[in-house]
Design goal:
Elements lengths: L1 H29 L17 E3 L5 E3 L8 E2 L7 E2 L5 E2 L4 E2 L31 H11 L11 H7 L12 E9 L9 E9 L10 E8 L10 H14 L5 E7 L3 E9 L3 H12 L9 H14 L6 E7 L6
Parallel strand pairs: 9-10, 9-12
Antiparallel strand pairs: 1-2, 3-4, 5-6, 7-8, 10-11
Length: 312
């Protein structure tokens, strides 16, 4: 009996001691006792820097090429290529093709070079969108020429010719020796004032199939068309053809000469709604029929297709 009492007494003392230690620890935390800060080392070559709390955080420069994975403070990994965090799901309806890179050609074999005068810039916008969402763009989405064409280089426009050519060259650091040079060829077309621009006849063929039911698709088309209406002159005309499961004319050729005609155009834009499947052939065929009827000789005549390119 005496032995049992001693055991109970010792156990009671142990419980009291644990309780007291717990109260002391809690009191220390409440009164702001310093906690042990983990020792971390930032690797600046990897785009890291110590944060205010002593933990590793990515530098501003690294944030566009790193994504926080939620596996603990300080664990930053390269974002998935062409994928969307946090579940690494691929972006829907994004298709790219790698067309390769043109090889070097010795001028002894071919001293002539031709290139198209166009200004495709879509690749830069697409890649910037990937980075803004915390992902790296697929390799196939990066097209160097479209990155170059995106920016305004401030070329001086010609005054008496259709276009001017601007040349700039320098030794290339990418060659094996000093015989390689980089030559930049800039083409600047003559700028025509709004008052001197020819009348425009614009036929919009708009995809209103089910896949367009998104703010960044059909919603974006509607916003763009509203901005366009404000830029049109009184002698410009606009027509709208839509296609889903079938095609029909939403807006007959209408000018912007009066406020009432502008309101008619805006009402047609607001009436755009997604419907059915994707009968692109019917839409394009009807669009060219409408464009032919309002064709103006010597004027600007365009058929503009607005679609997400997804058949459903």
């Amino acid at each position: 009996m005496s032995g049992n009492r001693k055991t109970i007494t010792r156990l009671s003392c142990l419980i009291v001691l644990c309780f007291a230690m717990t109260m002391i620890f809690n009191g220390c935390v409440k009164e702001g006792c310093p906690e042990k800060t983990p020792v971390v080392t930032a690797d600046h070559e990897k785009g890291e820097e110590p944060g205010a709390d002593g933990m590793i955080t990515p530098t501003l420069e690294a944030r566009s090429t790193q994504a926080f994975k939620g596996q603990g403070r300080g664990e930053y990994l390269r974002p998935p290529i062409g994928k969307r965090p946090p579940n690494d799901a691929a972006y829907d309806a994004m298709f790219f093709k790698n067309y390769g890179v043109n090889p070097f050609i010795d001028t002894d074999d071919d001293n002539l070079s031709t290139f198209a005068i166009d200004t495709d810039t879509g690749s830069y916008t697409v890649c910037r969108n990937y980075l803004n969402r915390g992902s790296l763009p697929p390799d196939e989405a990066v097209r160097v020429e479209e990155f170059l064409n995106y920016f305004d280089y401030g070329y001086t426009p010609p005054t008496d010719k259709a276009f001017a050519i601007h040349l700039e060259g320098a030794p290339s650091k990418f060659g094996l020796n000093d015989k390689y040079y980089l030559l930049r060829i800039g083409i600047k077309g003559r700028e025509i004032s709004v008052a001197d621009r020819k009348p425009a006849n614009l036929t919009f063929v708009i995809d209103v199939s089910g896949s367009m039911q998104r703010e960044d698709r059909l919603g974006l088309v509607k916003k763009t068309l509203r901005l366009l209406v404000e830029q049109l002159r009184p002698n410009d005309r606009i027509a709208i053809v839509v296609y889903g499961s079938s095609a029909h004319v939403l807006l007959d050729p209408t000018d912007t000469e009066s406020e009432s005609s502008k309101e008619t155009i805006l009402a047609a834009i607001d009436a755009l709604r997604p419907e059915g499947c994707t009968n692109a052939e019917a839409g394009i065929t009807l669009g060219y029929d409408v464009a032919e009827k309002m064709f103006g000789k010597g004027e600007i005549n365009r058929v503009i297709l607005c679609s997400d390119g997804v058949a459903n």
